[in-house]
Description:
By secondary structure, the protein is of the alpha+beta class. Helix content is about 45%, strand content about 15%. The strands form four sheets. Strands 4-9-14-11-8 form a five-stranded antiparallel sheet, with no helix packed on it. Strands 7-12-13-10 form a four-stranded antiparallel sheet, with no helix packed on it.
Amino acid sequence: MTDGSRKYGAGSRWRRFLNSPRGGDVEHSVWLRLMTFAAVAGGVFVSAYYNGLYLPMAAGFAGVTAGYVFSYLRRGYRNTWLKVFLTAAVVIIGAIHINRMLYTSEDHILVLTEMLIYLQILHSFDLPRRKDLIYSILAAFMMMCVGGVLSRTMMFGVFLVCFIVVALVMLVIYHLQEMSEGGRLVGKPASLWGLLAATLLSLFLGFPVFFLLMPRFETHAFEGFPVSGRIRRAIEEFRGEMIYPRMPSRMGRRGPDGRAETTSASEYLQSGDAYFGFVPSMDLNARGRMPEEPVFRVKTMSANYYRGMVFDRYIGAGWEVTDIEGVKIAGSEGANYFSLEGAGGYRDPSEIFVSEEVYQTFFIERDMPNIIYGAYLPSELYFPSGEIVEDRNHALRSPDVLWKGTVYTVVSRV
Length: 414
């Protein structure tokens, strides 16, 4: 045998090793894979939808679909070359998203959700065994939990019911496969489908009762309150002034950090969506146009009026805010927490009285001016910045625009 033939033989052995068939633990069930795919696709949709990650959602659907088709066609091979590639891709994706969390102002929940979607895409390309499909269901459940945390409407219940149905069907098929291979299957498989139908009916009838009997806490059960990622605007440049999002006709323009540019009060008033109460002086003879879409949602214990701006000087044709600069209040180091009682120098001891504590978590649904809303009298604030401003009327302002997706919590003494 010549050297060339020996090299050829070694190459052939290497190729045979890379594409050698697997052992007997390969999962061949098409229905099991289809149900798992449906659950994973649902998890990708819910987590991306409630985070507003529409591009990762599209990539997730396309990637997971391709991955499940590929893994089914290659289920009988070791795919060593693919495992090496997927391992390297996991490391790269992890490094990119950790870097984004450390060095950008993006909300960490968004970054982690996007990373989970891309990791799920990679995982879907290597699903030869039954236990790999179980891992996919667990990852899909995690993504459903992310959607549940961020959801603020009952529509999430529809997604959850669909996920439960698909997951239960998948587990029934999984159980049938396990029992059949072990020779322990007794009776007809159709009896399991009857059990599944009875289980789903019990869940459907029992869930409303469970929902009504679930205890509601009068206060938050934890010390940590919902708050989004930190605002990175330069605090030293902030002088308490009003800051507005760029008017809709210019929303395509972006600043150096990737965020939409801000605008002046005069430009803001030219916007068709502007409301005249969000400027330092308000003309009583002029009105803005109130849009129909929600601007923020509030999760709270009881209904209250939410203060934003306080106009304290009458100027004949309208009102104005006299204390624009206010006083800066620094938050606790690294905790996004502000204690407002006595912090700014404007609090009269008589204002600090024993009262009911009301917790309000605000979810901003569209870009808004830098006005921090809350029921009167705010005593604590969990907000994503290092400093805020409080004026003499206890109105609070942020050093940056309240961008869509911002989350903060106010504790008030009502």
